[in-house]
Write a structure and sequence with these properties.
Length: 199
């Protein structure tokens, strides 16, 4: 089992916020993460829609020191220890424990628990989140209001192509593009804008 990337600190059926562990890289915007629910054994899949670096102390804002990151680490290590990275992920699918192993592209019955661990999805897991691309409907029709939807769609389509590799990546990208076209009510200009940015 790979090392956990983050730990959930806020949770709802639709989304969760997780704090990235020290020494771990934050998942990229638009990347898939998974959470194995300790209580149910279900695996939840979320799409990272926001990454934020902030101070641990709510009333205390970071300040500029005019030093490189290396200089700060050497001369003021306490400064870096006061910062934390959090990610927000939209829950878009889940795989029930003990089922046939198929992923359901819908919201899970229960949200993840506080302190459940978050892992970055391997390409094999991302492949299971492909056709019929029902999660795209959630992103288009019920988007997170704080996130630029089209930019998130660009990132998702890049993940689709990358997960399948050079051999079949373009095929799957075309299939996802067709599903997206139907959802955008044939708004060709918007679709072309999204697809152009996938390249």
């Amino acid at each position: 089992m790979p090392e956990a990337t983050a730990e959930i600190i806020e949770s709802s059926t639709r989304a969760f916020v997780a704090e990235v562990h020290d020494g771990q890289e934050a998942p990229d915007f638009g990347s898939w993460v998974e959470v194995e629910q300790a209580e149910t054994g279900d695996t939840l899949y979320g799409l990272v829609s926001h990454v934020e670096v902030s101070s641990y102390e709510p009333g205390r804002r970071p300040r500029a020191f005019g030093q490189s990151r290396e200089e700060l680490q050497r001369e003021r290590p306490q400064v870096m220890e006061l910062l934390r990275t959090t990610v927000r992920a939209q829950v878009l699918a889940y795989r029930p424990e003990g089922d046939d192993g198929s992923v359901r592209q819908t919201l899970p019955p229960r949200p993840p628990s506080i302190h459940d661990f978050v892992y970055c999805c391997a390409p094999e897991a991302v492949k299971t989140l492909g056709a019929p691309y029902d999660f795209l409907r959630t992103l288009v029709e019920d988007p997170d209001p704080a996130v630029p939807t089209d930019d998130l769609l660009v990132a998702v389509l890049r993940q689709v192509r990358a997960a399948h590799g050079e051999a079949t990546g373009e095929e799957h990208l075309v299939e996802a593009g067709r599903a997206l076209s139907r959802l955008l009510d044939d708004d060709h200009e918007r679709l072309h804008s999204i697809l152009r940015r996938v390249e």
